[in-house]
Design a protein that fits this description.
54% of the residues lie in helices and 11% in strands. The protein is an alpha+beta fold and 560 residues long. The chain has four domains: 16-124, 3-layer Sandwich (Rieske Iron-sulfur Protein); 127-219; 230-316; 340-544, no CATH class. The radius of gyration is 28 Å and the shape is elongated. The chain binds FE2/S2 (inorganic) cluster.
Amino acid sequence: MQAMTSQIISPDVLHRTTTAKVGSLDDFAENTMKMAKVGEHTVAVIRTSKGVYALDNACPHEGYGLVTGVLGLDAMGEPAVTCQWHNWKFRVEDGVCTLGQEDVACYPVTVAPDGAIEVSVTTPSVAEQRNRLWPSLRRGIESDYTGQVARDSIRLLASDATPAEIMWEGVKLGAAKNEYGPGHEVALAADCLHLAELWQGDDRALPLVQGLAGIAEESRGYPARPIPSAKHAATDFAKAVEDEDYIGAMAWVVAAIERGDSPAQLRSEFITAVSRHHIGYGHGAIYTQKAFELLDRVGWSNAPDLLPHLVLPVSGGTREDTLPYMRKAMRALETVDTEALALAPDRRETGWEPSALVPELLTAEEAPIEIAVRAIHDGAGIEGLLDAVSLAVSERLLRYDLSIEADVADGFGWLDITHGLTYARAARWAWQADPGPHTARLALFTAWLAFDTGRAERRNGIAHPSEPSGPVAEALTGNVDEVADSLARAAMDDRGGSFIVVAHLVKTVQAAREEAAFTGSALPLAAAARFVEAPRKERFVARSVAESLDFVKTGKPPRR
Ligand code: FES
């Protein structure tokens, strides 16, 4: 059996076999191995008591030579080669990896009656190479083997697979397996795919692998969630979502896709659902935006692998508008005529400027629903309100007191504040895709979040931003695309630490890039630059212990 080849081939290489004599039996004592050339290939020729074998000499891990390793027996008593560099082990007879992540290519050997040994190396065609790599990539993602995911992604790029094809392989696995449905890992995958398509050549590999690694980390070990058939569809999607009837709502999505509902129809259904509530600090809207953006990139025919699962975070996310801290804002919001709000002229027609509204949003003592409504009618329109919210939450990021981030007892920090910007971006996407009273309501929720992300400021006294310097100053004066690109690279260079931080870094930079374009201001990029550069909490273990001590020992819930 020939195992997975580890070689990267040029796309123009066709299926080709090279055969060469590599010695004779007299040259090989039993249980020895030697390196030999077969055309351009270097192979490890191995003789055991069972016969003569040939493996690719390059260890599939990092390429060190197998002949520098050790030939012995595996746990089953079968001949095996150990690559000494990191102890991966390969069965001699077929190259199967018995300790490590990837098999090594195994080539056919013939021994003539006179003892001459010949090895045949077949270079697969590009199509064959790709067909072999997809299952290998899936195994790497399912096992959360970042190295294997990186190697296979790079091999697939070299075999002419597109970034969208590669990322989608991970997304469809992760969407089905993530315990709570598509989440931060799908949002990260959407933004990383955007970067992989924006960048060229080898630069595409890092965003691709960051996206896939996030999926692998979040979904490892969970079983794939079955998708119900259309016959279980609820009659009313909105009601099923509201009732947390996951099966009925998922099946409704399946039925809608099967009967040919358009992308715009499905998008409208999900946007309506996430506009009804303020879900999980904005996550419901953010995940919906990212899921539909992904489908725009990979094609609507892939919708059945993602959209039914999106029901989970939309239907099951915390409905913060039902909690005490939003009660007052909700009373104000329920009196608003959102039909009239949605018809208010846009700031692009009225020339309205957001500069006066930003300080009002920042200094409001209570959730600024009335302030937002007044501004919309005064000429902001929904887009103008979103401009002001974007700029206000960017100011919040710039004035965040970093000493709070180091306070284990304070559960509120960087990652929460960034939601002000990413939520505003998601609300703008929803409004532009599906303008109406429901998305006007979603815009008002972003005004509430602009207020709530000031919690730390109000608790600790507002720390005004210091004079911009370093990357923040550069972001304010530099070329928007260049600044956004360098921030995206920094967000992915592993300084972020844990997956959840990398996910927030990347989506904040992406939202900042887009909001800078919509608002015409560099402030969102400056805010993202400060977030990328600053120290951050990364794991939350100490915080969980502090909160659990309070709760378990005194019955006190965490301070909000
Ligand atoms: S290079 Fe062979 S195990 Fe790492």
